[in-house]
Amino acid sequence: MAKLIGGIGTSHVPAIGAAVDHGKQGEEYWKDFFTGIEPVKEWIKEAKPDVCIIVYNDHASAYSLENISTFAIGVADEFEPADEGYGPRDVPIVKGHSEFAWHIAESLIFSEFDMTISNNMPVDHGLTVPLSVAYDQPSEWPCRVIPIAVNVIQYPAPTANRCYELGKALRMAIDSYDSDIKVAVFGTGGMSHQLQGERAGLINRDFDERFLDDLVSDPAALTKMSHTEYIREAGAEGIEMVMWLVMRGAMDVDVDEKYRFYHVPVSNTAYGLTILENCES
User: What are the pLDDT digits (tens) for 128-154?
Assistant: First the structure.
């Protein structure tokens, strides 16, 4: 059977991708950041997941405001990097796992999550930056990828609790897949940041660190927070943090935090990273 080997939470700041693409890792602004994410590269190199399920939000690359899906899953054999207005990133094509993705789609729908099934889904920085964080600049990505897109762009977004419950249903789908593969789940987005308005540039380190603490020891507390609370504490775009709860919901109740990294600033946002393993692993 498929085995969930770990969960990764990471911000997906587009400037990280640009720094990787243009070889800026050693520059003064970036060197502490790239040193800080080295342990996730070491973890993923040792763990060698066959499939990475990446929970992210599309930034109007695959979906426009004409058609907004709360939850969508990509079931294609491959996903092209999206052109976000300055050309697609020069990264490998993302290879999917269609059979496993269809199994997950069926399992989630039978668990009463109304998934949008996408056979054609260009993937933007929300997905490719986490891959760069984990794998740097390979000639091809060493894992298959299943994208799960969550709407946190257009109101109303799903609640934190709904995302957590989606993670639990995702775990059922993983555990019921009859193939001997190793799976990692990424929850991406956040941390605290706001890109516009009077609070543009907001960074709330205290909230971010409490979130990371609760993600490990009391995720139920995070599921009880309203959209208003997330936006008040973490900024308008901080609502992306609910996607980390999909990853956490897929994990066991008790987890070990193998690594944590928090860095400010990355562009005009806070960056967070956590690596979780189930205690039995």
Answer: 999 999 999 999 999 999 999 999 999
